[in-house]
Write a structure and sequence with these properties.
- The protein has 321 residues and is an alpha+beta fold.
- It has one domain: Beta-lactamase (3-Layer(aba) Sandwich), CATH 3.40.710.
- Helices cover 34% and strands 22% of the residues.
- It is built from nine helices and nine strands.
- The strands form two sheets. It has a five-stranded antiparallel beta sheet with strand order 2-1-9-8-7, sandwiched between helices.
- β8 and β9 form a beta hairpin.
- α2 packs parallel to α6, α3 crosses α4 and α4 crosses α5.
- The relative contact order is 0.20.
Length: 321
């Protein structure tokens, strides 16, 4: 993945919510309209903190980018569970064991819907090995993959982010962090990828694991409770003790069709990204922020989408090659 030179200052909106000092210390939020980049609501949006399994948004984005660049079909590409899964821990909904085989698409379903840490590591191992080989390296494949996650973060302006692994679990000596603003950037970028957005909008999926004893099927349910509600397209949940309950949500409305001065009609696409970090009732919080976000965006658009300070009001997310 090629890095592009650019400079992005983390956007902060004039539409800042008012909280008590206790709530302000606990929570980070950002709401952005994805197509315009208009920042609608923000609070503590540039505070560095752990983001738990929201990390897997980057894992999924790197994986689908790699597959597109390599001409690999994620539906049929089989990847092998590595021996290193024994070092990860956490839930193992598919009872993955070293040597098991699973399609890349099913591994992405388990990682992005079920927040499966072992599936995330399996994805990283396969893609990282392919990347290292293509670059003439003999690096640890997971380390190579995490390096690609950090290169992607840098390329899209996530200047306050560091990834340490592909799953988001905190590990001693491996400091990882991000911000609500940077997770918003990452979510906008990932949701531009059709393969990624198709996966994260599913409420559940049946997937298959091939092992020496035969194949096994598993039902994976989306941990994002908002998926299935009108207009909700994903994207990801995350929870650890250090990060607290987190969620990134994407909601889309039908394009707004309006008549232009020349008499022709133009359509304005409308999509919100809502990021909530460390909120004890993240889904209710996100629903309220969706409503509040549209309440800021609609009159702004009706007024002609004025921008006085672009660096402060617009969140820029490039498309690096």
């Amino acid at each position: 993945m090629k890095n592009l030179p650019f400079f992005v200052i983390p956007a902060l909106s004039a539409a800042i919510l008012t909280f008590s000092p206790t709530i302000r210390a606990q929570e980070s939020i950002m709401v952005v309209e994805a197509y315009s980049g208009k920042v609608l609501v923000a609070s503590n949006a540039s505070a560095k903190r752990p983001i738990a399994s929201l990390t897997k948004i980057a894992t999924g984005a790197v994986a689908v980018d790699w597959a597109a660049a390599a001409g690999a079909d994620i539906r049929t590409l089989q990847i092998t569970v590595p021996d290193t899964i024994t070092l990860v821990g956490g839930p193992n909904p598919m009872n993955l064991q070293p040597g098991d085989r699973i399609s890349m698409r099913d591994a992405l379903y388990s990682a992005l819907l079920g927040s499966d840490n072992l599936a995330a590591l399996t994805i990283a191992n396969h893609v990282g090995r392919a990347l290292a080989t293509s670059r003439g390296k003999n690096n640890d494949p997971v380390a190579e993959f995490v390096g690609e996650m950090n290169r992607l973060a840098k390329a899209i302006g996530m200047t306050q982010t560091r990834f340490a692994n592909p799953h988001g679990l905190e590990r001693p000596g491996a400091k990882a962090y991000s911000t609500a603003a940077d997770v918003t950037r990452l979510s906008i970028y990932a949701m531009r990828r059709n393969a990624f957005s198709f996966i994260v909008r599913q409420t559940s999926r049946q997937i298959k694991v091939e092992r020496a004893s035969g194949s096994s099927n598993y039902d994976i349910r989306n941990t994002n409770e908002l998926v299935g509600e009108l207009g909700i397209l994903g994207v990801k949940t995350g929870t650890t003790t250090a990060a607290g309950p987190c969620v990134s949500v994407c909601m889309e409305r039908d394009p707004l069709v309006r008549k232009k001065p020349d008499g022709s009609k133009g359509a304005t696409p409308r999509r919100l990204i809502v990021v909530v970090l460390n909120s004890p009732d993240r889904f209710t919080r996100a629903r309220g922020l969706i409503s509040q976000g549209w309440g800021v965006y609609d009159p702004w658009l009706e007024a002609g989408a004025p921008v006085q300070d672009r660096q402060r009001e617009i969140l820029s997310v490039p498309n690096p090659s």
